Amino acid sequence: MTVQQASPSRAHRDETGVIPRLARAAREVESSVQRRAASRTGRTKLQTVAILVREERARIKADPNLSSAKRAEELKRLDGIALILAKSASKDPTLLPLLGEGAPVSDAVRSFKREVLLAAGLEPEPEPEPQPVAEEDVPQETSKRVVPPSVAASQLARPFLEPDLSLARRKPDLDRLAGFDLLDPLFLSFEVGADGRPACMELPETGTARAPKGLELMQHQERFVAAAQNGHRSFLLADEPGLGKTAQALLAASAAKAYPLVVVAPNVVKVNWAREAERWTPGRSVTVVQGDGSNVDGFADIVIVNYEVLDRHVGWMTKHGFRGMVVDEAHFIKNSESKRSKHVVQISKAILERDARALMLALTGTPLINDIEDFRMIWKFLGWIDDKQPNAELTERLEATELTPMDRNFYREARKAVIDMGIVRRRKEDVAADIPERRIADLPVELDESSARDIREVTYTLTRRMVERYDRVLERQELPKTTLDEDLMRRIARSELDSDDGASQEQNVFSLVRQIGKAKATLAADYAAQLARSVGKVVFFAKHIDVMDEAERHFRELGIRHTSIRGDQTSAQRQTAIDAFVEEESVQIIVCSLQAAGVGVNLQVASNMVLAELSWTNAEQTQAIDRIHRIGQDMPVVAWRIVAAQTVDTRIAELIDSKASLAAKALDGSDTTAEDSHDLQENALFEMLRESLADRLPPL
Hints:
This is DEAD/DEAH box helicase. By secondary structure, the protein is α/β, with parallel strands linked by helices. The protein has 25 helices and 13 strands.
């Protein structure tokens, strides 16, 4: 019998190089996961293989010396390894965070990576020296920095700010959890560890806090203030919008004697914060930072500043001796790369380093917009975590569970540990029975023939472009056009969003939705006018200025008195518009921008709302509705969502509703399956492409 010898190239492919070693390591992980939860060694191997697969894929794609056939063969082998890793992670969900490109890399992973590369005959590149992340990494822009005269005077009056060392900040002391990257498991715990329990720390049943004369505290507000009275000092106050978070924050600061207090808020609510501070803490002086702060009172108890000018004032604020800090609409800092996020964290870090007992409050009814990772910067602001690990208190709570991320029960207990750090989440239906229910009613409208024809043409152009890209890929892969590949469809949808070519800039999903909004404007305004005549005051929300302009033009033609809230208004103009709608009986409609009026506006004098355009997130829609569905509302609330029939509008409405499950699962203890973090725009394009491809298939 003749034994056929393997060719040199075949032997080289099978026995040498990095890919065979990655394949063996991936199978070892798969084998260990089938028998039990992944060991620490298995976790190290899985993350190392994932990193090297990405690096090898990039190298192969960039290698000009490889033939097309060889490149395709090597990429196919890497796909096989990636599939093994994915299957392993599906059996043990604790492995999922390690597959991500941004997962923290431990020393064990670096060591094993070096070992694999050396065994493959490759020289590992030297690891870059870790650079300390410090305040110097925050853009300084010193030319814009200011120190208001009154602030300088107050600092001269108290030149020595002694730090409070009675409770020094400690470093985490890891024992059982040493060697584990804990941040990703903590985020994952809010996806897989809900266990039907709402995300709310245990609060005192009663407290001694009393509202100023003429005001009244509800029980849920009193319990929160009592927690601050009892010594708790950091909170993510995530009550549903409309439950009085501003009052709770101000009274908690009073109970904790957290003065001077700095409040960071969106520009549109600064005036409202000043008003509320005077109502709920009448004995405290309040100052609002405008521009360079020339009129700021540096001796005030409460300093209110907006995100937009924080870069000018971050310097003196880190040295001012604040004993408390409130960040309103805290989801604004979810982007770790934004300047405002870095400035907020810079100030909070300085406050906590000087006083570990400072009161830190993050307020937001919608802490999660697209992803569980939206928690990261909020937790960092509160001092619960840093860039690499949880703080000492949270670490001790995790150690006390006597579990590790390899144990499935760890995620339930880890979620509780984070909640007990200070997450407070109450729903209207649970704590404010006197607030009537709300409902969202979709109102389909037929566009006029001219508008409908134009929208069909744009939709066809957009869909045709995606179908042609899809077909080109199938042609290169020599697959029939009847092939339906959902992964490929999603990649095509993503590439459409990322495309820079001129055609897609003129006719993309954003321009399509805007065109639909303009086509609906008069129809939506007409319906709002009918509501105003039959049920009283109406709030009208739109996303684009031209839609707002068209609605106001229609109201003028009909002789309906109205006012508006827009992004280009001053705080005074904005407040005048709100006061006119709330106090003047003849002002029947207020036309609001989704961006400018989505937060910090109380319009509960109305119980009906018209959403003329659909937002891109459930959170944005919820914020708008909660301008009227809040404490003080005594009528059932209806949000009329105007949906253009036979357009992508109907699909977007469905996708917005599906996004609601993320917060429900992470914060409210729901056992529903949370929507993943794919952008809604991508999902809308994906559905358009899938429907188009399905339509060209022959009937079954």
